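Sequence only, no structure available. Ideas?
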Amino acid sequence: MKRKTKIISISIACIIAIAAIFVYVRYFYVFGEGIKAGNLNYLVYKGYVFKTYEGILIQEGFKSQIQGTIQNNEFRFSVADPSLADELMKLSGSNVQLHYKEYFAPLPWRGTSCYVVDKIESVYNEHQ
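Reply:
I predicted one. Tokens follow.
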């Protein structure tokens, strides 16, 4: 009886450890980091249960997901920091460079995108 209890305990501990590793890698491990540059189209605060900041950066060039079509090269992102989001809202329509972190999956309270912008690298003013 003790051996069976020990096997069940070890099995449960292994399942919990594997589940914890899976959750960490899927939602908290930073898969990639980078900088995207373009025109900040908009940043909005939206959501039903979890209100998050979501934005679109329009980059130069075009892309095509379906053969024979053309659309803007858009970078859709989320912003977790409210003070950074306020700065970005003021820069709507400006050319900016944004530093982002890429995760495997989004969290509802972090945003709807796997790309989370964490800082503004630079702002280019076209009127200078």
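The two ends are 80 Å apart (CA to CA).
Hope that gets you unstuck.
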